[in-house]
Amino acid sequence: MDYPTVREKLNKIDRIELANLPTPVYGLNKVSRELGKNIWIKRDDFTGTEMSGNKVRKLEFSIAQALKEEADVLITAGGIQSNHARATAAAAARLGLKSHLVLNISAPPKTEGNYLLDKMLGAEITLLDENGDITLSQKMEQVADEYRANGYKPYIIPVGASNGVGNFGYLNTVREIIEQEEKLGVTFDTIVCAVGSGGTYSGLYLGNKIFEAGKKIVGITVCDNKDYFTKVCGTIVDQTLGLLGEGPDEDKDFTFIDGYKGLGYAISKEDELRFIASIAAKEGIILDPVYTGKAFYGLYNEVKKGTFDSCKNILFIHTGGQYGLFPKQEQIAEVL
User: Fold this and answer.
1) Which residues contact 47 (CB under 8 A, 6 or more apart)?
2) Fewest CB within a 10 Å sphere: which of 40, 72, 275, 336?
3) Count of alpha carbons within 13 angstroms of residue 147, beta-carbon side
4) How many CB atoms lie under 10 A from the CB of residue 265?
């Protein structure tokens, strides 16, 4: 791959500005002293209030494509407390578009957290029984067909905006990190993030290659496992390369760490919540229970195990999601 040529192509990819960038980077002094390792954090939870977190970086490219296709309805999906769904609804409201969210549920939901914000942001919402026979993707296609029949131009954004187009969000974040390293006078040899739908990790991985940053990109899985994400991220990476007019990456070297999804996606154990509370007290940083809480818990424990012994400066990506704490307030209160 001719990296300088590919970098030139990146500047021509359609994008709209939605996020507050660049997001800050700083050291976690107490945690670093505790672990004997330089741990830094990039606050992508600062991308904006309504669209806070990693999803808005992806939406800058996904929605740019939707507007290019003259779409007037954004359709996406996720769990009932989906950060991505909420961010999509907020972006649609800002841009004067309709939004329709397909949200997985296992029981009638309370109107709280992201689900409350979805309603406040004016999204149309379809609740889908996660134990039913139809998938989120299939339901989104049905919803899109209904809009087309009524004269609308819908655009479907996959779960987490984790596809070839959305992948440009974190691919470009590597360039942002490189610029921040120069200002901070530090070089991060390792970047760590949570892996839930694969788009953040895939972007960082491919950005690391294209910008020849020489970093180790580590993903800590919060659902499924490394075998699953090897396939998912491989597909996303190759989709992005295809959009850049390049062939597939034949030399993928993903690094995933399993063992920290706990009881399952978005299900919290007491020790995870207790850890989130301890980091809040030590560093004044609020992690979320679905992604960053589990991933940082994984990083913390793996450093203690010696997994990161060869690393000097580790940058953890805080991908947001704090609204997901509020539906767990009773469970959290029990561990404080």
Assistant:
1) 19, 20, 21, 23, 53, 54, 56, 57, 320
2) 336
3) 20
4) 15
Which string of DSSP letters, residue by residue, matches 15-82? ----S--SPPEEE-HHHHHHHTSEEEEEEGGGS-STT-STHHHHHHHHHHHHHHTT--EEEEEEETT-
Measure the CA–CA gap between 280 and 286, rounded to whole angstroms: 5
For residues 79 and 266, the answer to whether their CB atoms sit within 8 Å is yes
113 CA to centre of own chain: 18
CATH top-level class of 55-161: alpha beta
Q: What is the pLDDT of residues 80-91, one digit of tens each?
A: 999 999 999 999
**CA gap 116, 104 in Å, rounded:** 15
Q: What is the pLDDT of residue 111?
A: 97
| pTM for this entry | 0.96
Q: Which of 82, 99, 162, 197 is catalytic?
A: 82
Cβ atoms of residues 301 and 92 within 8 Å: no
Task: Write the DSSP assignment of 192-261 as a string of letters.
Answer: EEEESSSHHHHHHHHHHHHTT--PEEEEEESSS-HHHHHHHHHHHHHHHHHHTT----SS---EEE-S--
- Which residue positions in the chain have pLDDT lower than 50? none
DSSP three-state, residue 2: coil
Identical topology for domains 3-49+163-333 and 55-161: yes
197 tagged catalytic:
no
Question: Kind of pairing, strands 216-221 and 255-257?
Answer: parallel
- Closest by alpha carbon to 54, among 150, 158, 170? 170
Query: What is the dotted CATH code of the domain comprising 3-49+163-333?
Result: 3.40.50.1100
User: In the chain, what are the domain boundaries?
Assistant: 3-49+163-333, 55-161
What pLDDT score does 52 carry?
A: 83
Q: SS3 of 10, please?
A: helix
3-state DSSP of 105-154: ECCCCCCCHHHHHHHHCCCEEEEEECCCCCCHHHHHHHHHHHHHHCCCCE
